[in-house]
Amino acid sequence: MPELNGSESIATKSYPYSTQDDFAPTSAAFQTGLKGLTFLWLEITPRCNLQCQHCYVSSSPLLRDPKLVDWPRILHQAYDAGCRSVQFIGGEPMSNPRLVDYVARAHELDYKFIEIYTNLTLLTDRTARRLRAYNANIATSFYSFRRETHERITRVRGSFDRTVAGIDRALSAGLPLRVGIINTGMNDSEVPQAIEFLVSRGVERSWINTDKTRPVGRGADLTPSESLAKTLCGHCWRGKLCVTSDGACYPCVFARNLTAGSVLTQDLSSIIGSQELL
């Protein structure tokens, strides 16, 4: 599995990029700017069939996709700007019926790294085969080898079995799979067993990592209030951009207070080249 950002740790469902706490965002860091767009998060829907306690965007089945963004157009514009790595996120990206079409478009454009961050509960054999044909990678979250703990965190009964089945299905289809385990306070003592459980299913041990709950979205209800410096890694603006389902752009999936523009009113190239990203 390629490392996308050097020392940054594995992606997790609630944190599509894990962060480091030892680098506080500063105006000097922001002034370094984007030296070409290298990584793109596409938050193709806010809707999710789970209701995880720590979700950084407070996704749920009650949310509706505004369907405002022309995602193939964004993929084209990002590619023209030099981007070669894309991660489809949500919400639950597989709840968007056009996900595979977007993956296919990214593949046709010759993106070198394509990943879907999904809870895997909606993965079918047919979808797995199609994603494999487009050289897609999969990332998912897993919370415990105990069904009861996992579902206390996802707050949806049956989610444990569906996620495990999705893990098995992804591996059987030959999809590269990495897994993030988030310590929520409910599963801390079960993390070592969860790792062994995943390895026993066939997940590569080196593709399993852990992260902590952060005070963003519903995660704010689980953790003490922290400063922005402790929530973010400090690498905002450095070649990465998030486009949300309502068209808003941010330098990081967490940094919703740092709006860079909107693809509904601007081309991606103008957002990347704007003063907000310098």
Determine the fraction of residues in helical runs and give it as a percent range. 25-40%
Total number of helical segments?
Answer: 9
Low-confidence stretches: 1-34
Strand arrangement, largest sheet?
Answer: 6-5-4-3-2-1-7-8-9
Gyration radius from CA atoms, angstroms: 18 Å
The assembly state of the depicted protein chains is single chain
- Count all strands and give the number: 9
Distance between the termini: 31 Å
* Strand residues, percent: 5-15%
Estimate the global geometry from the Cα principal axes.
globular
The biggest beta sheet is recorded as: 9 strands, mixed
What is the gist of this entry?
This protein is α/β, with parallel strands linked by helices and 278 residues long. 27% of the residues lie in helices and 15% in strands.
Describe the protein in words.
- This protein has 278 residues and is of the alpha/beta class.
- The protein has 9 helices and 9 strands.
- It has helices spanning 27-31, 71-80, 99-108, 125-133, 147-154, 159-172, 191-201, 228-231, 268-272, and strands spanning 39-43, 85-89, 113-117, 137-141, 177-183, 208-212, 240-243, 248-250, 261-262.
- It has a 9-stranded mixed beta sheet with strand order 6-5-4-3-2-1-7-8-9, with helices on one face.
- Strand 7 (240-243) and strand 8 form a beta hairpin.
- It is globular.
